[in-house]
Amino acid sequence: MHASRILGTAATLLLTAVVLTACAGSPEAAPEETAPEAAPTTAAPEPTSTAEPEPTSTEDPTCETLIAATVVAEFEGVGWTAQESPLYIGSTEIEDGLQCMWADFEGPAGDHGMMFGWAPLEESKAGDVQDELISQGWVREESADGVYITESPDTVIAPDDEGYGMTYHFTDGEVTFAGTKQGLLLIEWPKA
Question: Which domain of life is it from (predicted)?
């Protein structure tokens, strides 16, 4: 009897192993595994879509969007407002350019204020306006992130900590401007 029980148990185990092996190799298991893989492929294009940033980058800048919102809040907190005007480089008005002067225009006249500017700029035109500035005594500095043209140290009225006054920063396809070279760091246009 002992032997028949062992044989019965062995037969049950063998039958269970055969059924499990047959189920594991069944084609029904494969679609279940591939179905979850198909879902991320469908969802993946949505996060990488650039549909949302495009409207932001194609909007025209304003004095309030050209610089960081925190900087705008600080300026407004001390009573400053912005006056918008076209951006000029030397004698050339830059098409689609913007220049902003932030100051307290309601208060007494003074020398407190900050200027910022931005414009799209073709490389051929960039070379022409740079040449004009240099002919007027401005100084050219090349760096890994573009070309800086800054007013002559002899004529700077309100320099930054490094001695720079009004400065243009020319990069591929655009130009930024600030009342000091350090002021360029406050410009956040185009928005990412």
Answer: Bacteria
